[in-house]
Amino acid sequence: MPGIIKERLFTPGPTPLLLEAQVQTLTATLHHRTEAFRQLMRESLDNLKYFFNTQNDVLIFTSSGTGAMEGAVTNLLSPGERVLVGTAGKFGERWLDLARVYGLEAVKVEASYGNTLNIEEMKRKLESEGPFRAVFVQATETSTGVSHDVKALGALVRELPDTCLVVDGITGLGTTELLPDEWGLDVVIGGSQKALMIPPGLAFASVSEKAWKLMAKSRLPRYYFDFSKERKNLAKGEASYTPATTLVVSLHGALRYIRQLGRENLISNAALLAEATRAAAQAQGLGLFAKGSPANAVTAICAPEGMDSGAIVKEMRVRFGAIIANGQGTMKGHIFRLAHLGYYDVADLFAVIAALEVVLKKLGHRVELGSGVRAAQEVYLQHHS
């Protein structure tokens, strides 16, 4: 007879929920057109600036992160304008899809899955095939576990007064050092179900003064995702349309927790877990999918030769209630992904690595029990000697 199996999320979104934030929503009966809610919204916006590490405006929308991505496109561009897209995975390809839908001319710089973008190639495209109104890129490509050098890209775009750099930071925020103001990241997109540790349903966008000026010239249609309208209403502590009030209350609690914890400590936690996971995977005889610049948000691990990664994902869920992510698109069946963003600690990591060893052994992979856990423990001790 099977014992208790407690489900635990190890996916790169949604992520485990912060208890303090969820408790706050249980007593949330605020109406969104009251002064109490306006005050809560103002405090959340101020703390979002801390989380984003910026003095720029940060907007809130009731949507998934993709909604704010689409809003960045429609608010910055006019029909037929040219954009430069850096893509190395499924989420980079989303920028291409959005450009196509809105009739933009997209020039692509592509890296194969598992690799990071070549910034020198981005530079050559900017110099030889411009002008571009916007450059679109991911801080972290969640589908492959790779991070991109948005700092170097920001230095290039900063010199172009009529071009904005738009960064999908949905899994980069809270896991990777990002300095939007210093690096020239004009629009940074975020989502609630990642490092913020609350349910899906809120999207965020920080917007620089350079971006606001270029948005004033944009002629693409928009209605719900109208950044200027949202900026005006949020200045009063209100959303343009009915917000997801309970999620905003939950956000308020999560941001307060992050402020107490310290943004840098949230990031260093993800970095430690990612480093320990990479060490554990290699000790178990597994390959890492990301080459050159692995992300802190998520680690993509290659399944053993001849083994479908879907079998690993299934066994982890059935045996241990551990929900991990399969590969996406052409990577499905070849890699699996373990997340490190948000409300995870090192004890969670030790447990999931131990479970993974049992699953690998049951599926026929030759692995010494305890080898991955030992490697993860050694990384922990190096950082906490």
Task: Describe this structure in a few short sentences.
With 385 residues, the chain is of the alpha/beta class. The protein has 14 helices and 14 strands.
Structural account:
The protein is an alpha/beta fold. The chain has two domains: about 10-15 and about 265-385, Aspartate Aminotransferase, domain 1, CATH 3.90.1150; about 20-260, Aspartate Aminotransferase, domain 2 (3-Layer(aba) Sandwich). The protein contains 14 helices and 14 strands. The protein has helices at about 20-25, 35-50, 65-75, 90-100, 120-130, 150-155, 180-185, 210-215, 225-235, 245-260, 265-285, 310-320, 345-360, 370-385; strands at about 10, 55-60, 80-85, 105-110, 135-140, 140, 145, 165-170, 185-190, 200-205, 300, 320-325, 325, 335-340. Strands 2-10-9-8-5-3-4 form a seven-stranded mixed sheet, with helices on both faces. A three-stranded antiparallel sheet has the order 11-14-13, with helices on one face. A hairpin with an 8-residue loop joins strand 13 (about 325) and strand 14 (about 335-340). The chain is globular and about 60 Å long. The mean pLDDT is about 95.
